[in-house]
Amino acid sequence: MSTDTGLALEFRSITIPAHTGDADAGDFVEMTRVRNLVYGEIDGNDDNALTAAELLPHYQPDPDETRLLWGVFVDGSLIGRVGVDIPHEEGSRNAFWLIELLREHHGRGIGRAAYALVEKAAREHGRTVLQSWAQHIEAAGPRLSAPTGFGTIPEDRAARFYLANGYRLEQIERRSDLDVTASADTIDALLAEARAAATGYRVVQWT
């Protein structure tokens, strides 16, 4: 397969090994390594990194869904992954997908080619509703608001890709991190702020 820029591009189904030390585990192990690099480029840290052994259970046979996984290869090197999850719930028309590429390969038409594969897989499984998720890092510039009224995200590369393919933002999940190595004054100030925001609430319990 070739992209608009003439790249030698291949989407290869990733073999799911029984164990990460097996002879057929090479592509899965390399996919995990590249996955971690992608999240590291987004986050600037390795908080979301997993070993191949930690990731492998997520791809074992599951009676509730089919998980399709391809490696994205350029000139024989794995530079990303494409995934499509097909729920087995009776009557479901949904499919969930992801496309993850190393940053140096952005803007080369690979994402468009990968998304064509996503849509093809969804059609083959009779799915008409496609859903996806992406992580967004705070940035200046135009923003998209969630229809729930909670939160906004920057209109970054991922957001623009979704919009260009006909998607709309539905819900935002916010992640907050606490730097426990910060000074005691900083921690105390954050605690005071949290307590002030928590006034007016009460605990309700039942058994």
Radius of gyration: 20 Å
Class based on secondary structure composition and strand pairing: alpha+beta
Q: How is the largest sheet built, in terms of strand order?
A: 1-2-3-4-5
CATH architecture of the domain at 9-132: 3-Layer(aba) Sandwich
What does this protein look like?
With 207 residues, the chain is of the alpha+beta class. The chain has a domain at 9-132: Gcn5-related N-acetyltransferase (GNAT) (Aminopeptidase, 3-Layer(aba) Sandwich). It contains five helices and seven strands. The chain has helices at 26-43, 52-55, 110-124, 157-164, 184-197; strands at residues 9-13, 65-74, 77-87, 94-101, 129-132, 143-145, 152-154. The strands form two sheets. A five-stranded mixed sheet has the order 1-2-3-4-5, sandwiched between helices. A two-stranded antiparallel ribbon has the order 6-7. A hairpin with a 2-residue loop joins β2 and β3. It starts with 8 loop residues before the first strand and ends in a 10-residue tail after the last helix. The relative contact order is 0.11. The mean pLDDT is 93.
Notable features of this structure?
207 residues; alpha+beta; Aminopeptidase; 5-stranded mixed β-sheet; two-stranded antiparallel sheet; 7 strands; 21% strand; globular
Ordered list of secondary-structure elements with their pairings:
Layout: E1 9-13, H1 26-43, H2 52-55, E2 65-74, E3 77-87, E4 94-101, H3 110-124, E5 129-132, E6 143-145, E7 152-154, H4 157-164, H5 184-197
Parallel strand pairs: 4-5
Antiparallel strand pairs: 1-2, 2-3, 3-4, 6-7
